[in-house]
Amino acid sequence: MFVARLNGMSVFDPLGDEVGRVRDVVVTLTGRAASLGPRAIGLVVEVPGRRRVFVPITRVTSIDAGQVITTGLVNMRRFQQRPGETLVVGELFDRQVSVEEDGRQVPAVIEDIAMDRDRVGDWRLTKIFVRKGASDSSPRGLRLRRRRGETVLVDAGAVHGLRESGPAQAATALLEAYEDLKPQDLADAMHDLTPKRRAEVADALDDETLADVLEELPDDDRLEILTHLPTDRAADILEVMQPDDATDLLADLPAATQEELLQLMEPEEAADIRRLLTYDENTAGGLMTTEPVILGPEATIAEALALVRREELHPATASLVYVTRPPHETPTGRLLGSVHIQRLLREPPHQPVGSILDADIDPVLPEASLGEVTRALAMYNLVALPVTDQEGRLLGAVTVDDVLDHILPEDWREDDDDSLEEVPDV
């Protein structure tokens, strides 16, 4: 069974109910029986709720016909890699090794690994699919490496360097295995990797995807990745990120590093972040994005719908259109009112948005506390809320996802459900 084929396969319990999908195979490369080949000890399975759990290989009764059948109960505690354990997709794919050929060692890169069940019932890595030829280990090579060289399937025993991480790896095969994942799921997968491998995967991602992933990672992980990147690329990534997320990330860096990155950014993008950095992180100003959907009152409903259906917009940001006097970039002219996307869908496309304003949604000031923002969102049953200055000019909008990020425990992304019992009182 090749691991690349196993990845993404549905996992079922004995009653036929789907438990989740395979995302990786956990192996041990050392031990008393290592001479028989690396041994698979379990599967990393993604269950509903985007949680990754460990299923011991002893619970697997069958791998066949595009499905994995397990027995017994599945421990729903989040998977945490232990010392001595290695992830096949996450760490072995793209590893630079050497293979024996005519008495000499030929450089190669691992593209897939096959495992078989031995006579005593253990699953062992028996065959390795490699591409012969040297690989560029520079950061640019990690991102742009093209597949060249002869491919060959060899016995695991003929591969040298499997147990050593060695030089920097590319991430071509790994990302192909994860190509069906959304940024949130890719962030979960990267969180489970070692810091070295996480940095290599970050090098291989394009700027837009990496920006999306950073917005979903825990603070420690994304700070680690950003500081690993070359300074000019780090500035490019910050430009692509949502301004509020980029500000949160920059706020954790020393002042000198902040200024260096801001100087490398486009002036307009940097200006938004500089403004957000002046607010306390637990206020409306510190929570808001400076790029909500803004139109003038004469704009048509058709124009508004065209803006909110843009794929790059977060659903919460797209839920409200803010109507202001010119200029229509924050800080804008006076805020006239807001229009919810549901109202836009109910009215004729040619009608101006200024004729259907909801003026009952009171904006909050940038100094408003987290508690005030939370209560306002609950009061109006909204997922976004306008933020204005004393003169009524729109400065930005606070969305419910940013509020949740601040009221949930810092480790909510990685802990069990029990960690959500203690939510700060707002």
From TrEMBL:
InterPro entries: CBS_dom, CBS_dom_sf, Mg_transptr_MgtE_intracell_dom, MgtE_N_sf, MgtE_transporter, PRC-brl_dom, PRC_barrel-like_sf, SH3_actinomycetes. SUPFAM superfamilies: CBS-domain pair, MgtE N-terminal domain-like, PRC-barrel domain. Residues 288-355, 357-414 form the CBS domain. Keywords: CBS domain. Coiled coil: none annotated. One of its GO terms (cellular component) is membrane. GO terms for molecular function: magnesium ion transmembrane transporter activity. The keyword Lipoprotein does not apply. SMART domains: MgtE_N. PANTHER family: MAGNESIUM TRANSPORTER MGTE. This is Magnesium transporter. It comes from Ornithinimicrobium tianjinense.
